[in-house]
Amino acid sequence: MAFIQREIVVHARAETVWDALRDIGAIHTRLAPGFVTDVQLEEGGEARVVTFGSGFSVRELIIDVSDAARRVAWTVVGSPLFTHHSASAQVFPVGPHSCRFVWTADFLPHAMAPSAIATMDQFLAVMKVTLERTERENNSAHPSV
């Protein structure tokens, strides 16, 4: 099974990043707008269909949203690309105004690794810009923060 772990430092409070990550139906507006163009929640929030800018969609079952660990875990189901895919993303405070975002994925077939790495890296780049902009906007709206 292939394993990928990507980490990125985001210059935003861990609370800001966690609030966006835990909002599992808003990836397309709060984490990676444009890269993800739509998210449809299903089954009372237990599953979502994520549509990417390329038009490709995946269905993900939400395994866990843990406020205590600031972690979301999910698995892709019914994909023609993966025979197995599970992933999680977690937020760790680094300082008062920055955090580390860690995304791991386990999947089969191994041959999907280059594509998965490219997708994760592109997503993280858009996410970093989006969350840092959100943090700046929040700080300018509330200068005492």
From TrEMBL:
<dbReference type="InterPro" id="IPR023393">
    <property type="entry name" value="START-like_dom_sf"/>
</dbReference>
<protein>
    <submittedName>
        <fullName>SRPBCC family protein</fullName>
    </submittedName>
</protein>
<dbReference type="InterPro" id="IPR019587">
    <property type="entry name" value="Polyketide_cyclase/dehydratase"/>
</dbReference>
<dbReference type="Pfam" id="PF10604">
    <property type="entry name" value="Polyketide_cyc2"/>
</dbReference>
